[in-house]
Input
Amino acid sequence: MQGREYLTRKGAERLGFSSEKPGNWFMAENPTTEDAYTLARPAQLLPLTRHLSYPLTLFLVKLPISPNQVTALSLAAGLAGAWCFSLGTMNADIIGGLLLILCYTLDNCDGQIARLKNLSSEWGAQFDDLADWLVDTAFFAGLGFGVSTATGQPFWLWLGLAASAGATIDYVVDLIYHAKAKQDPSKAPREEAAKSTGRPEAAIDWLIYIFHKLSRADFCVIVFGLALFDVTWVLLPLGAIGAQAYWVTDLFQRSRGWHT
Output
């Protein structure tokens, strides 16, 4: 949930707010620009979750709910989904997949709502990162436990724990990166960096972008698709290896600054 934009009277009216009641906009008292943040309908196919979050954001932004509360709902849905995967049954996996889609959709909404309501904050961004890490680690640990229980083979749990460990390392890498960035005056603030619309150009950059950004953004859709065929177990060996590759690419500057 990074980025700081402002919702003007015209922008509020476009979203269905009454211009007679500015308090309903959840704005800062003194916006500094007349260029409102406009929530545009996704123009590209990927990531798919953006097509889900767009109408949901338009609904949620009219409610008296804060971006951090939306993040909390996203976290709750993700942890509930992880618990479903720990049960080790096909039906539970399908429900878990749906909950993950809800989690990822709300995870998109919180940042959009923060910009629309001018409620972006460093603490909110950190809470968002924490929620992402908790969901990732809980998902792989839960899936590993569920498959291990269903098959009676403990190595599936170890694969899940390896993937969770990779997600934890990636979270620590992010914490270190942002801590160093805050101490470097030459680097743009986190809120400003989130506005970047750059896209990779070289082939290797595109590969990293697809692996590091697009696949992450629609991971919940992949999980749900595999759950429909009762083959979510394939994510465990892939996750045990892929999670390590993920944090390694996170070490390179080229993997940062591309936003989905």
Notes: The two ends are 13 Å apart (CA to CA). The longest helix spans residues 122-151. The chain has a mean pLDDT of 82.
